């Protein structure tokens, strides 16, 4: 029920942003700000942006519904491969699903397992950063190969 509610609210926000031309304004501003940045760096930035947005919008579907209408046209304007953007979106959201306390299933799992949040963060942070580094390397390679 909660997932359906999140997706519904995210869809409503996406419609309002689209009809109010907010999406176009955001895409224009982001394109102007990142035009001189290398494509590979922009793809990696999208990955970390999705990771941070996962704090505000826990749930891969809702996160994708809200951010892809902005990221897809931005990628087209910046000549970033769409597959790279989709991978950055998926990996960024999944990396922090078990990091931020805004995810209900994650907090419930910690409670059931009787693991303190601080102890989990100390355990998972090095692994998350390592996996994030691997994802950054993979995104760099994906965009480099796609750009040829």
Explain briefly what this protein structure is:
The protein has helices spanning 2-19, 22-34, 39-56, 60-77, 82-95, 104-113, 117-146. It is mainly alpha-helical and 148 residues long. Helix 1 packs parallel to helix 4 (60-77), helix 3 runs antiparallel to helix 7 (117-146) and helix 5 runs antiparallel to helix 7.
Structural summary, described in words:
With about 150 residues, this protein is an all-alpha fold. It has one domain. About 80% of the residues lie in helices and about 0% in strands. The chain is built from 7 helices and no strands. Helix 3 (about 40-55) packs antiparallel against helix 7 (about 115-145) and helix 4 packs antiparallel against helix 5 (about 80-95). The longest helix has 30 residues, at about 115-145. It starts with a helix and ends with a helix.
């Amino acid at each position: 029920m909660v997932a359906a509610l999140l997706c519904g609210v995210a869809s409503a926000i996406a419609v309002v942003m689209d009809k109010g031309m907010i999406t176009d304004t955001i895409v224009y501003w982001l394109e102007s700000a990142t035009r001189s940045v290398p494509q590979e760096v922009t793809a990696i930035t999208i990955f970390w942006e999705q990771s941070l947005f996962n704090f505000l919008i826990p749930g891969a579907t809702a996160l994708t519904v809200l951010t892809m209408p902005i990221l897809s046209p931005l990628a087209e304007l910046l000549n970033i491969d769409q597959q790279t953007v989709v991978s950055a979106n998926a990996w960024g959201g999944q990396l922090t699903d078990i990091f931020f306390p805004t995810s209900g299933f994650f907090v419930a799992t910690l409670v059931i397992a009787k693991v303190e949040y601080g102890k989990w963060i100390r355990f998972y942070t090095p692994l998350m950063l390592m996996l994030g580094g691997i994802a950054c390397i993979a995104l760099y390679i994906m965009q480099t190969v796609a750009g040829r």
